[in-house]
Amino acid sequence: MLAANQEAKRYGIKTGDAVWQATQKCRNLNVVPPHYEWYMDHSEAAREICSGCSPCVESFGLDENWLDLTGCVQDIEGGRKVADKIRARIQRELGVTVSVGVSFTKIFAKLGSDMKKPDATTIITQNNFKERVWPLPASDLLYVGRATAEKLRRRGIMSIGQLAQSEPDNLVRIVGSKWGNYLWSFANGYERLGISEAGAVHPIKSVGNSQTTPKDLVDEEDIKITTIALAESVAERLRDHNLKCSAVQVNIRYSDLSGYQRQAQLPFPSCTADRIYSKAYELILRHWAGYPIRSLGVRALNLLCDEYPQLSILPEQQRDLRQLQIEEALDRLRDRYGHFVVQRGVMLTDPLLSALDAKADHIIHPVAFYQSEGMNIA
Amino acid sequence: MLRKQYVDVEERHTVIQVGPDANDVQVRIEPVVMTWVHDDESVSQFVIEKVLDISRIASPAGGIGDRYTVKILGHERYLWRERRTEAWFVEARNHQ
After folding, report:
1. Binary contact (A41, B64; C-beta < 8 A)
2. I want to staple A297 with a disulfide (CB 3.0 to 4.6 A). Which of A95, A107, A210, A279 is the partner?
3. Other CB atoms within 10 Å distance of the CB of residue A338
4. Where residue A358 falls among pLDDT bands split at 50, 70, 90?
5. pLDDT tens digits, residue range A29-76?
6. For A325-346, what is the HEC assignment?
7. Which residues of B touch A42 (CB under 8 A)?
8. Is the whole-model pTM more than 0.90?
């Protein structure tokens, strides 16, 4: 289950349930296939509507946005009017309902949007937040995840109010100095996090792809194929942005969902899949404990602009330059005729794993699982 | 249940200047002729007599796009143009 609507939630169906679990909870459950591109269309259109109400819109995930209404409205009542207008427009133009929280901090606005669903505006003011917010469980607060909530619970902190009234020093001892202070100020409504401007382009700090593979990776060959697919897409995206990287990071997650990250420097900056792949593969093999791998990630770090590359007389770097020319030729072929028109020989050894076009579906691709089932039967 | 029935539509594109600068232009897209291919592959064509309204409204059948209120054979009808696919559709009853 990728998502459950309000009716399904009433039966206890949660995101992450297997289909058989969900059908046990609700016999006549109607399961519909996901349409990621529709989801993207809707979130983009909703964001456009938000951008019409304030110059400061910050996206939170794909389907949530924060709007800074400072200077746009006089008081919290003005905020309610904007919220109702956004809800009405989204309902009319996109055909879906949304819930909005209006408050004096980002954290409480997000909390308010989750308090009443679907299709509601919730107002949390400086005068009423103690009555409305403080009785709620601490885990309702943004950034209080399951692990943090459990740590707090063991010290007797159950509600947001208890969190607010704790000594900050005490919280620092429980969750560390950064988050102890943060959570305390969140719960008290002291937080004044800014909202980034709409349309502001963030400089890219890293380029990475990860893939939960259609089957667990059990041997070096499996790892090789997946690493190549990921490295190729990372390298292609680096080239799209005229970037080179000087370090590579890998993420490994085993089938029991435990995982770790490792990173290493490259001898010189590069944007070829060849370089990124060999460093990533070396890292993975050095740290792989031999258990089945559920998901792999490859990330290019320490990026630098590649508009005026430094020429080199070192044979290694010249080889990399020739490799770059080959890969750029591949990019052009793939742009024109699709990703699978040119492939490495090793990719042919396992059609299931190499079916990943990591660049095109680098976000979420649940379909891969359905396909894998079909192919196993075949 | 309503479903989308995609139809072939001949479009007329008109460039309208919307600002003081000659480059401040918008393209207005209007349907001219709608072609409906039936299940038995016979074809009906309808001339769009008039476009009464264009607004961004979601269809109950789903999808984001512009809803055109048009006059066909003297009747008011809705035609949608999907934003992403730029395909036209009308709402049809599901016979199942």
Report:
1. yes
2. A210
3. 11
4. low
5. 888 888 888 888 888 888 888 888 888 888 777 788 888 888 888 888
6. HHHHHHHHHHHHHCHHHCCCHH
7. 64
8. no
